[in-house]
Amino acid sequence: MQFQNKNILIIGASSGIGLELVHLLSSEGANVFAASRSRSERWPGSVRYIELDVTLETGILSDALPAELHGFVYCVGNINLKPFSRISENELIADFKLNVVGAALSIQQALKPLKNATAASIVLVSSVAARTGMAYHASIAASKAAIEGLAISLAAELSGSQIRVNVVAPSLTDTPLASKLLNTPEKIEASAKRHPIGRYGSPQDISTAIRFLLSTESSWITGQVIPIDGGMSNLKTTF
């Protein structure tokens, strides 16, 4: 199996994309370390749980991780949509702290075991909104764009340690986080139509892409932002 005896840390592992990834990697033999604010009853029994709130304290990671860490995934996020004129300073700071500062500090804590492993991989999660102008997305787009900048810089800095760093940028995905955007038949239909491929995303769409970036199959890919968005970011199918 591709991930047999590989140690993978997934932060934000209790639902949505992170939960799907836990199951996918566990089924392929990975030793999954799942970090989140609460334990999920839906995790396989083999999962190692790390209680973690990235907005409060990430220092506990260094003591909770194994000596070698082959993969790091940061699936933490939020969807804070509102008119720009109504976004408060506290909301801007909170979004940035959750998406960017939390990721950066978590990577710092995991850096030693990542360097100890052979050819480790870091995958961060951005959003289609970071590069595609969307109304009411100013705060989330700003913080996710910063995630992309962080990843590209780290990809250069860590390349000498054989650590790859990449980003996936999903569009709307059917997760608990997006439930308010998909809670009526009308919203479901409209969301599907906005994507050239004719549907919105599933957690499996994103988790399989992350799995690829963690695997040796992508060993020559680093410093990339990969849209997983049904064509939304660069295809125009209506005139």
Automatic annotation (TrEMBL):
A Pfam family found in this protein is adh_short_C2
User: Which Enzyme Commission number(s) are listed?
Assistant: 1.-.-.-
Task: Supply the alphabetized keyword list.
Answer: Oxidoreductase
| Listed GO MF terms | oxidoreductase activity
Specify the enzyme's EC class, one word: oxidoreductase
Which superkingdom is the protein from?
Answer: Bacteria
Q: Which family does it belong to?
A: Belongs to the short-chain dehydrogenases/reductases (SDR) family.
- Name the record gives this protein: SDR family oxidoreductase
Lineage of the organism: Bacteria, Pseudomonadati, Bacteroidota, Sphingobacteriia, Sphingobacteriales
